[in-house]
Design a protein that fits this description.
The chain is mostly helical. The chain has one domain. The chain contains five helices and three strands; from the N terminus they run βββααααα. The protein has a three-stranded antiparallel β-sheet with strand order 1-3-2, with no helix packed on it.
């Protein structure tokens, strides 16, 4: 059977001590090259968005002034504030893991786009049409959408 070529460039990472036994049905989830897990190239869009989400999670642990004001302005319930660092950390983990798993990269980046679509909607509903909407929420929506499109192209 002829080998199917992928448009995704891969680079080698450290070879495991024994070959990976990946069932053929799961090979699309873990791309392998001679038994070595492959890395999506370029990997930096996923890693960059993950770093942004980790920084945002750290700032949401005890919300800094502009984040606190933003959450109040859009009417985000205070009882959900403690969940934000957990969600953003989980997002960062999913994006980093997506570097080695294309379906996870697509899923996580799609979830981030949904998150920022919701954020933009909350700003519009609250008539918070200033810096928070145009710089923060819309800017992150554009960046997240670009990462999602990249992940789809590598799939």
């Amino acid at each position: 059977m002829p080998e199917r070529r992928s448009s995704v460039r891969v680079s080698r990472i450290a070879a495991p001590s024994r070959p990976l036994n990946v069932p053929s049905a799961r090979r699309t989830q873990i791309r392998t090259l001679e038994g070595v897990a492959a890395v999506i190239q370029p990997w930096w869009p996923l890693a960059g968005l993950a770093v942004i989400h980790l920084a945002d999670a750290a700032m949401c642990l005890k919300p800094v002034g502009f984040i606190r004001d933003c959450l109040r302005d859009v009417g985000f319930p205070r009882r959900f504030w403690p969940l934000l660092p957990l969600m953003k950390t989980a997002t960062a983990a999913g994006l980093v893991a997506g570097i080695w798993s294309t379906p996870l990269a697509v899923l996580t980046s799609a979830a981030v786009v949904c998150y920022f679509l919701t954020a933009v909607g909350m700003h519009i509903r609250a008539r918070d049409l200033g810096r928070n909407l145009f710089l923060n929420a819309s800017g992150m929506l554009v960046l997240s959408t670009a990462t999602f499109v990249f992940a789809l192209q590598t799939a």
